[in-house]
From TrEMBL:
<dbReference type="InterPro" id="IPR015424">
    <property type="entry name" value="PyrdxlP-dep_Trfase"/>
</dbReference>
<dbReference type="InterPro" id="IPR020578">
    <property type="entry name" value="Aminotrans_V_PyrdxlP_BS"/>
</dbReference>
<comment type="similarity">
    <text>Belongs to the class-V pyridoxal-phosphate-dependent aminotransferase family.</text>
</comment>
<keyword id="KW-0808">Transferase</keyword>
<feature type="binding site">
    <location>
        <position position="336"/>
    </location>
    <ligand>
        <name>substrate</name>
    </ligand>
</feature>
<dbReference type="Pfam" id="PF00266">
    <property type="entry name" value="Aminotran_5"/>
</dbReference>
<dbReference type="GO" id="GO:0008453">
    <property type="term" value="F:alanine-glyoxylate transaminase activity"/>
</dbReference>
<dbReference type="GO" id="GO:0004760">
    <property type="term" value="F:L-serine-pyruvate transaminase activity"/>
</dbReference>
<dbReference type="GO" id="GO:0019265">
    <property type="term" value="P:glycine biosynthetic process, by transamination of glyoxylate"/>
</dbReference>
<dbReference type="InterPro" id="IPR015421">
    <property type="entry name" value="PyrdxlP-dep_Trfase_major"/>
</dbReference>
<protein>
    <submittedName>
        <fullName>Alanine--glyoxylate aminotransferase family protein</fullName>
    </submittedName>
</protein>
<feature type="modified residue" description="N6-(pyridoxal phosphate)lysine">
    <location>
        <position position="190"/>
    </location>
</feature>
<keyword id="KW-0663">Pyridoxal phosphate</keyword>
<feature type="domain" description="Aminotransferase class V">
    <location>
        <begin position="26"/>
        <end position="329"/>
    </location>
</feature>
<dbReference type="InterPro" id="IPR024169">
    <property type="entry name" value="SP_NH2Trfase/AEP_transaminase"/>
</dbReference>
<dbReference type="InterPro" id="IPR015422">
    <property type="entry name" value="PyrdxlP-dep_Trfase_small"/>
</dbReference>
<dbReference type="InterPro" id="IPR000192">
    <property type="entry name" value="Aminotrans_V_dom"/>
</dbReference>
Amino acid sequence: MMKRFLCAPGPTAVPSEVLVEMARPLMHHRTPQFSEVVAENAEMLKKVFKTSSPVLTLTASGTGGMEASITNFMSPGDTIIVLSAGKFGERFAEIGRAYGLNVVELKAEYGKDIKAEEVREALKKYPEAKGVYTEYSETSTAVAFDVKGIASVVRETSAIMVVDGITAIGAMEFEMDEWGVDVAIAGAQKSFMIPAGLAFVAYSSKAEKLMKEAKLPRFYFDLAKERKNLEKKTTAWTPAISLFMGLNVALKMMLEEGMENVIKRHYLVAETFRQAVQAIGLHLFADVPNVRPSDSVTAIRVPEGVDGAKIPAYMRNKYGVTIAGGQGSMKGKIFRLGHLGYVDKSDIVVELQAMELALKELGYTFELGKSVAAAQEYILKNFPVPNVAVSEAGD
Ligand SMILES: *Cc1c(COP(=O)(O)O)cnc(C)c1O
């Protein structure tokens, strides 16, 4: 047998509490019992999004939420500004073009981000723009965009600020209302610790005004319809019932830990990874310190002379640890260690030791164990010590 660990930046590991809940006999979705779950989840999601707006749960992967953020607020021919420096930013632009929008793509090289000042200039140049669409954590490059700064620019205009917060919301600081984010999107299989199949979308009153004039066709992802249904503690269509049940347990775990602690844990884990990989001479792909690295995934440049495409394959097939390679043109050039959702100190060591073994086999020269040791040093110094009694008897 080979013991397997899912350490990708989505889908992520699911805690056993959630798996057990999802294995229960199915509940019918048009019942008072399920309505309680719908309402309770929605309340808890507001605490994760930090918003007073309703947070809708769509039965779709994250991309469904992205698509809804276009179709519900725009009309054919409308101009949108898309910040694009990776695969997911590009996806926003592709969806916009698929729906006949005039997409102004603000591009930066992979590994970099687009600064608030550039967005300010673009909004001056395209005052007709109805929306600014951006990533928060660009999962393909492991770069975090300055969403707070960008939102402060967009909020001075009539455009709405739309944030793909999948791999950020629930892992990194996010204040939807306070920052002035108008549409926020999150996804189940990333920081929410449940399997793929749910997308979460919230929208502000500024976005709601735009929605009322928006003429793009929509049916399944009709957010106004979902909002009306949520008021009645239900969903427009048959939801992924088991996922709603699992989400209920996962959200309770997150809120019990406290969002501040969840976010701090993600930061500490990410920082450990960053220190550890650099201790064996590896380089981050994110253009640090010009950009902020994401706290949910670390992208690493494949070292000279190593066959990069083999790193994830070796780690998964020989050592049981699933990470992610580079997407598209970055295949073979980077590899990505995921660390979001159900992650803690021990996961760091699991990933690093497998990474070291794969790199060693693929010919990279370094001292075995050094990244693991660096991680352990960092953990000892920086991680909070849990407040539990350690009995001398060892029980
Ligand atoms: C995973 C991810 C998505 C959504 O992808 P799906 O496969 O549709 O769930 C979108 N944006 C980002 C930043 C992601 O990490």
